[in-house]
Prior knowledge:
single chain, 692 residues, alpha/beta, three-stranded antiparallel β-sheet, 30 helices, 54% helix, extended
Amino acid sequence: MSECDRVTTGQSFRSFRRQLYKNPFASSFGLQCDVAVLSGVFAHKGCYKIGHNKSELLESDYFNEPWYIAYKKAWENIQNAKEEITSNMLQQILNELESFVSNIKEKSIESLENEIQTALVLTGVNVTDHAIMFTRIISKLEPITKHMALIWNKDLKNIKNILEESIYQLMNHEDAGTDEKIKKSQCNMRVLKYWYQKHCKPNDPLVIIITDFESSSPAVLHDFISILSSYSSIMKFILIFGVATTLHAIHRSLTYDVTSKLNVKVFHMQTQINVLSDVLENTVFCSNIPFKLTGRAFQLLTDIFLFYDFSVENFLQSYKICMIQHFYANNINSLCCSPLEINNRISALTNEDLEEIKKLPSIVTYIEQILKEYNIDEPLQNEDFKKILSKLLKRFHQYMHNFLKILRCLHSLMATLPNAPMGKQLREFYAKAVSVNDLKECHEYKECLQLLSFLSKQELLSKLNDILKIIEVPKNSQIVKIKNDLQRHIQTIEAASLETAVTPTDIVVTGEKLSRLQLKEKLLKMSKERAQSPYKQAQLDVINYLDQNVFSIYLVNPNSIPANEIFCFSDGNLAKQHIRGSLRAAIHTGLNNPQVYFNCGCCKLENDEAIPSTLPDLSIIYKLHLESRKLINMYDWLQAFLIIVDPESDAKEQRDVDPKLQARFTQAVAELEFLGFIKSSRKKTDHVKRLV
């Protein structure tokens, strides 16, 4: 009896798995690598050889496609915006650190009183952006001192590692000027002392940057600072700690005898709310970038930033994923470009592309309205449609420009109201405007209008003047008209008096008895009949004007504007699948229906329960295990597998199993255990236990 036969008649699966790894059947029987989804787990000979030049990447077919050209140009604008965001975000702290290190360099080592000058940088929890920040810090400090060491978490295991890594980087920088580079194993404080006396000026500081203070071992840091302190009278050290949480972290981790040796100065990064505002200002709220996030997609990206990582890099990569989903293999979205390029992009479209555009829901509705308005029964010709399409696209650009400008006016007017019903940040106003069907019917918007009527004269004039500054440089006649109307309202309010004309109100007291409701209605009627002050009347006039003639007209949801599908991406579910993927769900989908990923005809299923023999072995094993109970009999499992992969054999029980088929079965079972779906059972040696 062979080893495979003994396994199916009672040997434990665990012991057989060990034998399988010692003498894998896959290589013995020459199985092809496509018998299982995870065949790449097993070692195989690669084609790459050391010393051979890498083959040049062939230019992909889609590089010259209109959609890719439009996507590439849009992403280049985002990249430029990213550089500006990063520069603005780090500019303040870089300048402060530069000044800090420069001042220490100018001081003599005796004046430091044997204290280690320490900069505590409160970086926040946006860990993915820390590498960019510390790289910028090193670049900023290089003109002051070349002697710097950047220490990551992997070098903080013990005191030996951190000392060797720090000293090695300090001594072996690019401009060290030494003929020989010292090995890391030779690095110690005595060697650093002699090197410093020979190659450095007396006031040259040695900067050591520890990127993540919280992840460092307190004991290691305690010993490291104590060692540096013992040499602080000979060498000038500067420590820069990156702290993600609060200043108290350093006092919780280090004892007083260590902190007393440090002269600490705290530097604060820009708050994450301001960082997100800068990101959105240069991407979503920027009129130079035609691609716009709306609806649930915008809310998803901002929620991930605020409640998950605070990372600018992750936000922009998620933004890039949304752009790829919007543009990929869709030439009609090549029209998502600047107004100057619209006519050239339209002329490059094929008839098939034009037909696809005509099927867009907003375009269909608009064309139907035109045909109905002019009593046209025949469908539009392509040339006529191109002219209409050009006007629609340019109109959308103008609409989006006005939308963002008026949205800023709304934010300036309502952000500082009590309790801020619409929110305090511009992104909150934008999220509300692009998610509701009608902003005028929004409860928070109505509440803000009521609160505006309680503003004092000075407060109202201040807000109106701020709105004038926002629309100070109009680009079209509509905005010019709004500006002129507001100026007239401001003049009226400035001249209006706060005094109310006294009018006699005769209250006829009769003997009739009024109910509570009747009395309330009578008092309400009397209050309306009271004369209002000129200021109050002017205040109501300007609020009604802004509500009916400005906000209600210009803050229409972008998803209701014709041709919005070309510019806007709002599919939050599609974005979520790629940004916050579920690993377990993806594995289940791949094993249960491999055709989703393989995209081949042999794996196509007639229904979810079907198990064709053309499926990979791992998929067959997985689908069979889904039909089993908590414990799976290995022998029955093998027989079910043989019936599927070898349907031409007798349907009866197969005692003499083909060794190749049995090897394929055991390999697939081992891979299924590796994925965590089964494990060997202690109750029965010839059974395995389902874990899911």
